From TrEMBL:
InterPro entries per the UniProt record, alphabetical: AAA+_ATPase, ABC_SmlMolc_Importer, ABC_transporter-like_ATP-bd, ABC_transporter-like_CS, Mo/tungstate-bd_C_term_dom, P-loop_NTPase, Transp-assoc_OB_typ2
Residue ranges of coiled coil: none
PROSITE patterns: ABC_TRANSPORTER_1, ABC_TRANSPORTER_2
Pfam short name (any one): ABC_tran
Domain ABC transporter: start-end pairs: 7-239
GO molecular function: ABC-type transporter activity; ATP binding; ATP hydrolysis activity
Key words, A-Z: ATP-binding, Nucleotide-binding, Translocase, Transport
Name the record gives this protein: ABC transporter domain-containing protein
GO CC aspect terms: ATP-binding cassette (ABC) transporter complex
Length: 383
């Protein structure tokens, strides 16, 4: 990803000797400075363990961890240039807002005038100017969260680690804080590593997402690529809703499922290779039966506020979920239309490395072919 990563994991594993439980399995990644990264996974997947290893709160069983090219496996917590925002904020209840934010600066024996200047700057950044003397017990959940973030950035660390810091907030405040955190990270230019199990949160805030499952990185990519190009059934199901059916890749750009052949935009697979086909619910459009690529019968319908969630079944018994702003009628037969780019093809049991290699090779082939075509056209023009 970069020649000089701010954080690097090399073959990092974590297990417990007493019961043999394996938490992390050969984790490798590089994080670029100044980006917003998210570790996304279900509870127990290992994402918080990765965060704790970076912070020095737990040790890796094997492998090496680097911070700004320095190996930090044996570097004490207080000597690592990172700061963690915990889920419960870990604020000091007997100190006011100013003293909570100033705490890491006082530990480092920063000059008193400099402490006051930096604390006031941090308060301004998190929109808490004037709260310096407020007691922690008098703050709302959102205000406490801002204090914790201010304390994390006041030291100007190389990396800020955030362990599900928004999980205790109500939905409206949580959404507001997503915008604020993202804007703050971009303003400061500090690397943020954010842990969450909330898919929408990860998609909204991140430059890059790591999907963690059972101690392994299943896929890592931009939010758009994670959503549009899930590597396997787990990712497709974990990131949003998906319709997944089995199919056959007849040839490049042509896939067969539900007994019909459809144009697609995917290629680079073997002829007649078994695959899984993903179509997102929002990419299915309601139409008349004779105008649809699929014909289905509406089974149920729920109003979700911004759209209707419709469950319908085709003539083969395959269930389809549709998200539409148009209302359907339970029991009616309708058509479903979609475009070739709405069809995503997944290879069965493909690893991320195989996925990347296939896409890279496929793209290279397209570039070569395009170059040959241009050359031929130029020769034709000359002739």
């Amino acid at each position: 990803m970069t020649t000089n990563p701010i954080i690097e994991f090399k073959h990092v594993s974590k297990s417990f000797e007493d019961n043999g439980q394996i938490i992390l399995k050969d984790i490798n990644f590089e994080l670029e400075a100044g980006k917003f990264y998210t570790l996304l996974g279900a509870s127990g997947s290992g994402k918080s363990t990765i965060l704790n290893i970076i912070a020095g709160l737990t040790d890796a069983t094997t492998g090496d961890i680097y911070l700004d090219t320095e190996r930090i496996n044996d570097v004490p917590i207080n000597q690592r240039d990172v700061h963690t925002v915990f889920q419960n904020y870990a604020l000091l209840p007997h100190k006011n807002v100013f003293d909570n934010i100033a705490f890491p600066l006082k530990i480092r024996k920063v000059d008193k005038a400099q402490i006051e200047k930096r604390v006031l700057e941090a308060l301004k950044m998190v929109r808490l100017t004037g709260f310096e003397n407020r007691r922690i017990q008098k703050l709302s959940g959102g205000q406490r969260q801002r204090v914790a973030i201010a304390r994390a950035i006041v030291n100007q660390p190389k990396v800020v680690l955030l362990d599900e810091p928004l999980s205790a907030l109500d939905l409206k405040l949580r959404t507001e804080m997503q915008y604020e955190l993202r804007a703050l990270q971009q303003k400061l230019g500090i690397t943020f590593v954010f842990v969450t199990h909330d898919q929408e949160e990860a998609l909204a805030m991140s430059d890059w997402i790591f999907i963690i499952n059972d101690g392994e990185i299943v896929q890592s990519a931009t939010p758009v690529d994670i959503y549009d190009e899930p590597i396997n059934r787990f990712v497709a199901n974990f990131i949003g809703e998906s319709n997944i059916v089995t199919g056959i890749m007849i040839a490049d750009y042509l896939v067969e499922f539900n007994g019909k052949k459809f144009e697609s935009v995917d290629g680079g697979m073997r002829k007649n290779e078994p695959v899984e086909v993903v179509i997102r619910p929002e990419d299915l459009r309601l139409t008349l039966p004779d105008e649809g690529k699929l014909i289905v019968k509406v089974q149920t319908q729920l109003f979700r506020g911004v759209h209707y969630e419709i469950i319908a079944v085709d003539e083969l018994g395959q269930e389809w979920m549709i998200h539409s702003t148009r209302r359907a009628i339970v029991g009616e037969v309708i058509g479903l239309d979609f475009e070739p780019e709405d069809i995503h093809i997944m290879r069965l049991n493909e690893t991320e490395e195989e996925f990347d290699a296939r896409i890279e090779e496929y793209v290279d082939e397209e570039i070569v072919e395009a170059g040959l075509i241009n050359a031929i056209e130029e020769e034709n023009i000359k002739d």
